[in-house]
């Protein structure tokens, strides 16, 4: 992740919730196990279709990192009925847009298009779940593309290389330690046979959720989902194991020196519980960290940037959507080069001081209010709500938990927040990193 | 909490063929376009002001950008911190950015917090404090971001491109400025920049969301009504552009290449035809010729695309890709080949009709959220596309002939006018 991106994420806040009445998802399940969620919204004659698969890089065998992401690229290569790029060509021709993404815990494909085309789009999406045709040549060329992608995202960006190292250390016994895109040397070894095997084992209807958002009603969704996805045969779902990472007994730090780096950047990555283990504690930690470190009105920013001028920026956020552990990311840009441990000490001293003094009730109320307001913004669109639901349920949450999210929020007190922040402050499962020249 | 609002999606819907907006003039004489949309309790305002970074004084590059970055850092009635907390407290988001020929702003607020939200916007627009301490703080942040950019290959490439592509060096300057130029900017310069940009007559406004006409009028006057009328339009003319190639060596496993040539202004009668040609050449994501030839067939890149960058009086066509150092030459040759092909042979009937249906179908995607509606209302006004544009757009597209597109392509995509910047580890 680039720092610029990281900063913008800190400002935008990575995960926002849905207010109680903002959405009414309807759910049903086909006989073959495909789950369907419909979010009707007739604002514009447009539909967003997302097909979420309940696996990401986490299902890859040891030694085959990058396979899930590789497969995602290959899903655009066509089927017998819709060869080569018939599907993509159709989407463009009707003025639609499409893409796909792979994460640790999920893989998703989406299209946004005029509503009149839903039949054809759904037919083609269903078709590539089982009827993909791949040639060895496809696989070899696409491997080159993926290596270019890895070079673009990671090899030519020192900051991303540092992130990759820090994650691999923080999660020594879990797939979150392995890059989604794959290690370069392992991508190079992935074969046609690996791809075919991966496709057959994982691309099955009982491993997927179809989310339809926009100008589509439930009866229509039922008819088409049944017609196009209903005929696909159920498969055997791989049981995925969540291994637990050991608690750190030693402190760990990573330094990355690169000749092109002109600005020292400090980072700290913590392993923490995800929403899956407790939504309430997760929200409390999220709000607490927002008060502490999100944006230029945060407590750390106020003291260390505005007042003491030790840093030109500082920030942090919680990512709690995960089947395994979540993480907290902190970064700081020191005004003058200081050592990595010294930076950590300055920030720790300040957090201790803040927690000892206690959080101001006004700050707490403002941040809680903002949390609710932000959930309205999240509903302004059709792809975004589908994205939030998809990501949440593929991180181990249930739809009814999302509907109840703001009720849980209402229950959270300032004591809950202080408790979570204190626990976080004592957390020894972290990696320190610095980028320097 | 009392802000809870039930949202009924079903009561409101757009028919894009008959997209209805209102053209309104306020008491203070400010014109704006407006769509009332109660489907979600939010209001989005999108506006621009004539001026922009072309007006930065010599050796003071980055002035306009610094000025807009300071607008939410405190006003006469709010300290920087109080201002930011007040924004959070009413669910408002304010964002300003500097462009070459204008500055842009967006403002969004939850609709039962209009009064508070517009108050905060009004403060930023009319009474920014440009406090010396805040200025130092923001300068330090921009300086850090410039240093971070210096190790980012794609930013190095785009700086190199701007430096060498524009022979009129006023366009080579960085909107952000340089570490050196930032030091030269005084508080007085910031006030001057503010005065140059914030004028009633240079305003373009689009507003959409859960607000009625009376309130929209009232708040627009409240925010912008007291601004003076001293705006001058910044006319951009990229008269002299470089061609050929410029290389810059750095230690990296993958090179970044940026290329470009002269384009068309948004108001050019051939603009839409050029847009169709560009869609086929490199703009149409997975369908473009460059994507198919360079990525799909040869696996040379992860991404490659071209786009038109239009200004009011002139324009550019730009493109970029990243590829391994060893394959830079091959990929550049591919780009030139596609440039020659479209110039000599034009586009096929099939490509032509698919590009047209793309542009017709894609328009409705703009109507799925309030901010994109407000932006659209602003852009159509900004480029003077006419208040019948929404009605005419489909007809404009239908009336374009293949011959016209191919004529434009044959006058336009001249590979010997292309300029490439290559940043990578190069043996040649």
Can you walk me through this structure?
The complex is a heterodimer of chains A (437) and B (428). Chain A has 2 domains: 32-229, Cytochrome Bc1 Complex, Chain A, domain 1 (2-Layer Sandwich), CATH 3.30.830; 252-436, Cytochrome Bc1 Complex, Chain A, domain 1 (2-Layer Sandwich), CATH 3.30.830. Chain A is 45% helix and 18% strand. Chain A has helices at 3-12, 67-74, 86-93, 118-130, 136-155, 158-170, 184-189, 192-202, 218-229, 279-293, 299-307, 340-357, 361-377, 383-393, 399-403, 405-410, 414-426, and strands spanning 26-29, 35-40, 46-53, 97-102, 107-114, 208-214, 252-257, 265-272, 311-319, 326-334, 430-436. In chain A, a hairpin with a 4-residue loop joins strand 4 (97-102) and strand 5 (107-114). In chain A, helix 4 (118-130) packs parallel to helix 9, helix 10 (279-293) packs across helix 13 (361-377) and helix 11 crosses helix 12 (340-357). Chain B folds into 2 domains: 21-224, Cytochrome Bc1 Complex, Chain A, domain 1 (2-Layer Sandwich); 244-424, 2-Layer Sandwich (Cytochrome Bc1 Complex, Chain A, domain 1), CATH 3.30.830. A 6-stranded mixed sheet of chain B has the order 1-2-6-3-5-4. A 5-stranded mixed sheet of chain B has the order 7-11-8-10-9, with helices on both faces. Chain B is globular and about 60 Å long. Chain B starts with 21 loop residues before the first strand and ends with a strand. Residues 1-14 of chain B have low confidence and may be disordered. Chains A and B meet through helix 3, strand 5, helix 5, helix 11 and helix 13 of A and helix 2, helix 4, helix 10, strand 10 and helix 12 of B.
